[in-house]
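Working notes for the structural subgroup meeting. M.R. asked for a predicted model of this chain before we commit to crystallization trials. I am recording the input and output together here so anyone reviewing the notebook later can reproduce the run.

Input as submitted:
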Amino acid sequence: MKKREFDVVVIGAGSGLTISSKAAQLGLKVAIIEKGPFGGTCLNRGCIPSKMLIHSADVMETIKNADTFGIKAKVSKVDWKKIQKRVWSLIDEDAKSIEYGNRRTKNITVYKKQAAFVGKKLLKVGNELITAEKIFICAGTRPSVAPIEGLENVKYYTSDDVMRLKEQPRKMIILGGGYIAAELGHFFSSLGTEVTMVVRSSLLKNEDEEIAKRFTEIVSKKYNVMLETETVRVSKKGKNILLFVKQKGKLKKLGADVLLVATGRVPNTDILDVKKTGVKLNDRGYIEVNNYMETNVPGIWAIGDIAGKYLFKHSANLEASYCAHNAFNPDKKIKVDYLAMPHAIFTSPQIAGVGMTEQELREKKIKYVVGKYDYINTGMGAAIEDKDGFVKVLIDPKTKKILGCHIIGSDASTLIHEVVVAMKAGLDVSAITRAVHIHPALPEVVQRAFNNIAY
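Returned structure, recorded in token form:
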């Protein structure tokens, strides 16, 4: 079997491209291994296409609520094919363009095949064996599919493929209650699909408890949300899927033409067989890395979802930049700074957060005080009639430092950044309370939450 040696091997063409690009600029001989389209999960199956699709849902909700603002509006048709074409023509072209650019870059060799380790720092890719002094594992995660009786006998979808449905489903069952399930539930239900969400425990359980509770109240009015519900088995009847669930001890039967399984994600370490290169994994199968993104094997790093620190594209990009610096400047290594790592969920209403939740502070016995403010009690909140949104801040009563901030409501993903900047800079509440905010712009709701802290 043919064996090739490189200076650098990067597994995964998502955020790992930051590292391969840096290596190529340094004149190193680089191999990029990516079985699927370039751009990673974010571009092809995650952040970008989902947000483009969700914008169509947001437009639909705006039209549905137009009467609130004295405008009579009516939707005559949902052009599903146009919605799909708008998204995927851009996504697929971008992926091809990224791959084309890498193939044309001096010092880079592209492998469009599945890889697996067969020895220490030795990978089998197709009919070749490749090795390198420096190897970067950036291979991400994939949807986790729960072991449900009968599931193997029915056609089901995951977040990898459900967004490319050729026709809009009439009825959809979503298994799961995390952010992926919530976002896709918003997309399909807002465009007219009858959605039933089956959740083992509660919706968005990793969010601040008050945010999760408010969100559950809101979406339960939009579609059928079944909490504390166990999925027993799945079967098919003609073109329909039947789901048998148990809720409060009672067995119930649900029917739909599409089943979406959104029950979490698992790392691709098993597919890569990383144990054969000696890399240690944690009990959930993620690669163990130190603060420099180094594994226990010298010369092997891991970043992004497969490292299991944060499962965000922006955190993967952050890790990639640090990793590239550390790997190629070993005498000037810098620890990854995760301080004030934010996130957002693009549902309706939007959700965003940074720092610790109230339940986390209680569990860690950290003293805190709370400040809250409702959107509707601000000028812009009243103008847009956001009656459900609120901002919640968690503050250290002694230092006045920000421990966490959680927002549900219009443009939450934008409003959170003011708090992120203050936290990253190590500033206390005065950075926000003393800053002049435009009246009556929406960010006033953030400032008023800080002014409303109950010391």
